[in-house]
Amino acid sequence: MSSVVIHIENLSKKYRGEDDFAVNNLSLEIVEGEVFGLLGPNGAGKTTLISMLCGLLKPSQGQFSIAGFTYEKTATQLKSSIGVVPQDFALYPSLTARENLLYFGSMYGLSGRVLDSKIDEALERLGLSKHRGKKVEDFSGGMKRRVNLLAAVLHKPSVLFLDEPTVGVDVHSKQAIMDYLRKLNSEGTTIVYTSHHLLEAEEFCTRVGIIESGQLWRIGSPQSLVASVPDARNLEDVFIHLTGKGFRDV
Question: Which residues are CB-contacts of 71 (< 8 A; sequence separation ≥ 6)?
């Protein structure tokens, strides 16, 4: 039986000057080896929740643990156990692909031949070996996405947080990224994934939580969620049914 790797209990966040909670009394358990999709419209609380779990925001109330670690007592171990792939590129554009990976790998305590070997293997897996000496600022969007991903997983985290990992990339880069993520998951990495690509999420995720107004409105496998809504053909139909058809890009 798989063990719980992320435990969230009554977690809330209210930003200063705001009347409503961005995340409101949210509880959730994610088990080891899952690909958990956190889906919701703009402003639903996805980014706030992920930011708290990654240590970028302090909760207003509630608590959570990742791999048994907490930021209050074991912050160093917790940070070492996670990888984070933000939607915005977390790379140094004036450095080469290899130099970026050397920098981020060293931040996680990797060095010497071990780090060199991991970088070589990673670049090869995502088709970037022949571009290792080129500056990232000269890369296409898809190439930057691939380096962005590699920078987060060189240390083999037990949990990987992904925020829109395939946004703005071509078909070939998207396929390479998703194949690599499936391989990481098959090797034991638990993945927490946010995206607006609902059909991609339906294929990729083992379980999905739909968040709205800072609360989880529905949770289950993609198949069970589709079956729970009359006449729903896919996860996109479920999403519209639960969150409405109003525009959320204001």
Answer: 55, 78
Give pLDDT tens digits along the chain (250 positions).
Answer: 679 999 999 999 999 999 999 999 999 999 999 999 999 998 899 999 999 999 999 999 999 999 999 999 999 999 999 999 988 899 999 999 999 999 999 999 999 999 999 999 999 999 999 999 999 999 999 999 999 999 999 999 999 999 888 888 889 989 999 999 999 999 999 999 998 889 999 999 999 999 999 999 999 999 999 999 999 999 999 999 998 754 444 4
Q: Which CATH superfamily is domain 4-243 in?
A: P-loop containing nucleotide triphosphate hydrolases (3.40.50.300)
> Angle formed by the axes of helices 97-107 and 112-125, to 10°?
130
H/E stretch holding 130 reads none
0.85 surpassed by pTM: yes
